[in-house]
Amino acid sequence: MSVTQARTSDQEDVGVPDPILTLDHVSKHYEVRSSSNPFVRPDLLRAVDDVSLAIGRGETFGLVGESGSGKSTLGRVAVRLSTPTSGRVEFDGLDISHLGGTNLRRVRRHMQVVFQDPLGSLNPRMDVGDIIGEPLRVFDKVRGSELDDRVADLMRAVGLDPSRASARPRALSGGQRQRVGIARAISLNPKLILADEAVSALDVSVQAQISNLLVDLRERLGLTYLFIAHGLPIVRQVCQRVGVMYLGRLMEYGTIDDVFENPQHPYTRALMAASPIPDPTVRRERIVLHGEPPSPLDLPSGCRFRTRCPMAQDVCVDVAPPLVQLGNGHAAECHFAGQLEAAA
Amino acid sequence: MAAVDAAAFTEVRGLRRQLRRTGVSVNSALLYASLAWMAIVALAALIPGVLATDDPTVLDPARALQPPGAGTLLGTEQYGRSVATLLVHGARSAMVIGLLATTFGMLVGSVLGLIAGYLGGWVDMVIGRFIDMLMCFPGVLLALIIAAALGSTTTNLILAVGIATVPGFARVMRGQVLTVRGHLYVEAARSNGFSPARTVFRHILPNALAPSVVMATVSIGVAIVVAASLSFLGLGPRTEVPDWGQLLSLGQPYLANSWWISTFPGITLTLTVIAVSLLGDWLRDRLDVE
């Protein structure tokens, strides 16, 4: 697409007609107390810093970034496993930012989580059938043979043999464990599933199977995913849109094609340069980032990426970059967004 | 030389293999011995008449201080009662106090530890300080103080010994709950929208219970010893039939000449405590899912 479109940074174009999840200027800050001196004012760790984002019904939104970029924290805030410090989380038209107790529990059945560590997320003292059936027992009061049938259906839906219902999680392979976690997550027909690095801990071949399963289930059940990952290829394979996080901020977001074919943030370009292309004939510009990301306790002035950015100028030190809208719901937070030539 | 060593070596290996084939190891032999001993103690506690036919309340000064073997298996004490009979009839008191005191301590301690570990914050602080306070006293001393304050009845002895075991259970359970609470499956239960009660009782407690159960078996042994100590010191219930602790103290003045009066209750106590601990070890292995 053209990169010379008008910059409309004053209006925030979320670009999603029917959002199921809307994050509006969401921040999550932690106070880090000094371990030695209790009288020192605690430092503020900005794990997520003023992120706005909307996820459309039925889409898969990928969230990528380095470790410590705040993508998991953002995911946890989105499904209210943790409470935002400020901002608004709206799920299916309902403001859930500060719901608690029973009201929050009532919403939770509509937004389930698939965790990174499949074994750790399964209770070792329950068998597979109990784990998958527990939400049905608790919320829909399903009992007896009906429960067994529903559990068997769920197991088949995720590609597990129903005869394994009496197995303990420990007796399963990594892929099977993650299938159990997915079966539990879809048991209540949720609207949104947070897949927090759901395939990262698995073998590459199993990763493909599980991500295919997730895609398949999305189509069959009309699910929406917030898909957190650190591998770009998997995001490209599974997601329709993607957001790139760096040090607690969303640096760039847009459709997979826009972001992958025409990244407009230097950080996105660097991430892509770091991801190998399985084709020796492809040549591309190499952007190598030096050093570690700065501490989120002590963020750089201006643009938080400037300390590692190959394009950094004086303006980046003084002025925080605006969010530049590039059309089609593609936006990047960089002074030079829209001026980068299309990537090879 | 080397050939002899090799022969001896293969012989030892053969012996080991034979042992393995018959399924008898030192550990399992000890386990079976413990089971057998506890079966005898349990039988004595439930129906003492099967093991000892004579009446433990009938005094017979003519038979006083007979050594073991002469007419009675383990000799007689200063009032002419058979030591063996008294041991059999004292088993019930020991078992009742051991089991009930441990049950009480485990219930109260685990509930306190569970609440402290799950809720954290100031609740944890208050419970923690209370437990610290109890822990300041050694178990026996604490039980002694409570028993002395409450008066010597069986119920009070159970309470005294039970309270002395509360801090241990509370500590163990609190630590376990803190560990388990951090596991991902607890977070998964939360993200599923399960109630706190369900999360605690279905997901946290079953995974936090094993160490407490193992501790309970050890604690039964300790409770029996502590109860016997209190009885020895005269803080036990006043009954016609002496319990093991009282029998120990009955024999104390006669230790020089009639060693059997105190020695056999001592051995009985020791064997019981060891048997209970070994069963506890076995239980721990069985409960370990990892």
UniProtKB/TrEMBL annotation, chain A:
Pfam families xrefs: ABC_tran, oligo_HPY
Keyword DNA-binding: no
Residue stretches making up the ABC transporter domain: 21-272
Keywords, comma-separated and alphabetical: ATP-binding, Nucleotide-binding, Transport
Protein name, as recorded: ABC transporter ATP-binding protein
Entry annotated with the keyword Nucleotide-binding: yes
UniProt cross-references to PANTHER family, sorted A to Z: D,D-DIPEPTIDE TRANSPORT ATP-BINDING PROTEIN DDPF-RELATED, TRANSPORT ATP-BINDING PROTEIN
Family as reported in the entry's similarity comment: Belongs to the ABC transporter superfamily.
MF-aspect GO terms: ATP binding
Automatic annotation (TrEMBL), chain B:
Keywords: Cell membrane, Membrane, Transmembrane, Transmembrane helix, Transport
Positions of the ABC transmembrane type-1 domain: 91-280
Chief place where the protein resides: membrane
Location(s), subcellular: Cell membrane
Transmembrane regions: 29-51, 94-118, 130-150, 156-173, 208-235, 259-280
Name of the protein this chain belongs to: ABC transporter permease
SUPFAM superfamilies documented for this protein: MetI-like
Membrane-topology descriptor: Multi-pass membrane protein
UniProt organism field: Occultella gossypii
UniProt family annotation: Belongs to the binding-protein-dependent transport system permease family.
The keyword Disulfide bond is annotated on this UniProt entry: no
